[in-house]
Amino acid sequence: MANAEDMEDEVSVAPPKKKGGRGMMFAGIAALLLLGGGGYLYTRGHGAQAAVTPPKAPELFLPLDPAFVVNFQDQDATRYLQVGVTVMTHDPAAVQAMKDSDPVIRNALVMLFSSQTYVGLSDINGKKKLQAEALDAVRKIVADKIGKPDVDAIYFTSFVMQ
Description:
Blueprint: H1 4-13, H2 21-52, E1 60-73, E2 78-89, H3 92-100, H4 102-114, H5 124-146, E3 153-161
Antiparallel strand pairs: 1-2, 2-3
Function: Controls the rotational direction of flagella during chemotaxis.
Pfam family, one: FliL
Subcellular location: Cell inner membrane; Cell membrane
């Protein structure tokens, strides 16, 4: 039989147990799984919200043909301006309202374009200002017709000053 001293030697020879070895490993894996699952659920939840949001209607373009040709006074001579205009909306009702109100829109834009000066339209800022004023004029006419100003943009498709 073994005596007490031999038993102590055997006990002391055994390697000490590591604290939290496998337990820490399992806790780390569990934490990673929870974070990954939470991230998946978070992004899936946002994906569901995006699916609930209706897709934006396609852009509808309405060219106002023929191009506008107006004269305006300069200090030296009579000048001419030719502007091609296309209107963009997402609402088919606004397109129909613009078609129905074509004479009113054309009149408003002719008056606006003919009130400009050569110097005022010579740089990009003057053209952008005119574009914003034209958009406001068309929006007002459409709002009077359908109750909402559903015109998103006006584009000058040609712009010639002479």
